[in-house]
Write a structure and sequence with these properties.
33% helix; disordered N terminus; two-stranded antiparallel ribbon
Amino acid sequence: MKRIKNIAALGVGAILVSMTAVLTGCQENFLDVVPTDRVSDASILSDSVLFESYVLNRYMGTRLTDKEAEGTNPGFGRGFEYAMWSSLTDESIYNNDDNTWLIQRGQIAPENTGIAGTFWGRSYRSIREINYALANVDKVPMSEGKKSRLRGEMQFIRAFRYHDLIRNYGKVVLVGDKVYEISDDLTSDELFDRAEIKAGIDYAVAQLDEAAALLPAANDNNWKLGRATKGAALALKARLLLYGASPLYNSATWQQAAAAAKVVMDLNKYSLYTGGYSNLFLTNDNPEVIFSRIYARGARHVTLEIANGPNSYNAWGGNVPVQNLVDDYEMMDGTKITEAGTSYDPSQPYKNRDPRFYATILYNGAPYRGSVIETFTPGGKDSKDGPSNWNTSKTGYYLKKFMNDALPIDNPWDVAGTQTWIYFRYAEILLSYAEAQNEAVGPDASVYAAVNAVRQRTSVGMPALKAGLTQAQMREKIRNERRIELAFEEHRYYDVRRWKIADKTENVPAYGIEIGKSGNAFTYTKKEALTGKTFAEKQYWLPIPRAEIQASNNKLEQNPGY
């Protein structure tokens, strides 16, 4: 199947403000110059190929802050960046800070948003760009069938932008189909009226219903991998309704969320990948992936192996997993390491753990590129005693998930950074269904089937959940399953907030492990890897950047507590 490659962004007149220049003493025809650095509105609307390219570029947004979008412009969410979204959670910390620690320490403010300040501006810019295209698609010379598909695609993209806004800010401004121009009254109250969360979710869900009816069922040579399909629209709808049913949002029902996930399941198009959990993230076109961002040489993201690898390999140890996450991986027999009767041996803490642990985290003794990881002291090559020790992991762990060991660490710039970022995959749908169905009716057989399918997937093989769980016990099992299965995929940050447990999970120190070696024996001592970690009630939502509030002449309502 052919893939979309990132198309060089078109400098489209539709997203530029037309200005009138007055040149004293110059002849009038000097102004009649055809720009060579952009494509005019007239050209876009008279050429079907250019118009479609314009639409395809809307899968990307504008780079708005430092240290993002290396290689290509950002997509939805955050994705593969130097500091990943996981490093604002109890999954990892970013070794070199890069404006993440202030968020972990509860110091985020409208004037200082760290890496979390781009969603508002980027999303609304993208929404305007989509509205422009929707308003003008009928002028483009192309078949009605093609126009319908593009309308569905644009409605999907716009809904995804609202999804990014809602899950980060809660109440949002619903623009509708309006294409605002510089000539409009940009002080109007309607530009700054934030709709209630339910209204925002209802609007996005309605858009996705329309998109699903217009989009193709599958990618093919005429609708390349990386473009939205019916399944992508339905998956986004299922996620929005799951969020909406959750305690933080309280804007949908669990029955609605379960039904939406079940619709995706009943497409009978997607299935759990059987090529191994690690390979899932290195295989672009596989039956588990519902929607993803495709990269390629010349159109890459951050080169993950050098950005996140161990210091002794000349890598930079970027997003380093914390002990908090490590401790939540079950034993291979299904017991937690803290429960009575567990098979966990604290003198061999990495033995017989859930296979997804080994596919996600590099730990002391883990095989790696023909050698083994050594985070022990004294003398461990991947510890502070090793080379380039300024890049040594502060937690004693390194990230393995997403990494491709066939790609070089040294000088990777022309060949690496090509892994697919998965926005939706079937395992998420199964776990979303299980969660919603459990909350709606309790742990029925379909809940067990969905969770066990994920736990017992090929290369994982964890035991099935015990029969007879209460609704509360099943809730905890599902939440932990999401933590493990979806680690580092941009779910944990939003999960602990929508469940309203972030005041507990994020108020625990970010722990690491100190490993001492004497002869052939190791000792393991928990340590605080990042000091000052804290979470305040206001952090359930992000602050709207101060510049946006000021631009509205203080008409735009700020989130509580900021």
